[in-house]
Amino acid sequence: MKELKELEMINKNNCVMVHAMDIIGGKWRLPILWKLYQNKTMRYNELKRSLVGITNIMLTRSLRSLEESGLVNRVEFDQIPPRVEYSLTVNCQELVPALEVIYGWGYERMRKENLENGIEV
């Protein structure tokens, strides 16, 4: 009986959803991925301006995490002033259909709750 209970326990080592949410979860990761999907390539300050309310620390941490997970490319250009651009990796492109479904679901929820004025495309 104890073995069955241990097998039923959900954790990041045995649950696909928990593993996926460890990678893309958090308040800002999906919005960052969505903005990069919409714009193809963005510089740090462009991302910062497009994500109202995000702090520099949170944007930097989120981008690093997404880069370490293989979802975001970071390209540094050797020039003055320094320039860094972010884009989605090929691996992340596989996630785009799910992002579109999540966006559509969220859009409909906001519409049904009469929050259309706040909808960001």
Give the topology.
Elements lengths: L1 H7 L7 H9 L4 H11 L1 E3 H7 L5 H13 L3 E6 L5 E6 L1 H4 L2 H17 L9
Antiparallel strand pairs: 1-3, 2-3
Describe, in plain words, how this protein is organized in 3D.
By secondary structure, the chain is α+β, with helices and mostly antiparallel strands. It has 7 helices and 3 strands; from the N terminus they run H-H-H-E-H-H-E-E-H-H. A hairpin with a 5-residue loop joins strand 2 (72-77) and strand 3 (83-88). The longest helix is centred in the C-terminal third of the chain and has 17 residues, at 96-112. The termini are far apart. The mean pLDDT is 88.
Give a brief rundown of this model.
The chain has helices at residues 2-8, 16-24, 29-39, 44-50, 56-68, 90-93, 96-112, and strands spanning 41-43, 72-77, 83-88.
Spatial shape: globular
User: Whole-Å distance between the termini?
Assistant: 51 Å
Order of helices and strands: HHHEHHEEHH
Largest sheet: 3 strands, antiparallel
What value does the Rg take, in angstroms?
A: 18 Å
Low-confidence stretches: none
Spatial sequence of strands, sheet with the most strands: 1-3-2
Helical coverage, percent range: 55-70%
Helices, by number, come to: 7
Class of secondary structure makeup: alpha+beta
Strand elements, count: 3
- Percent of residues in beta strands: 5-15%
Mean pLDDT: 88
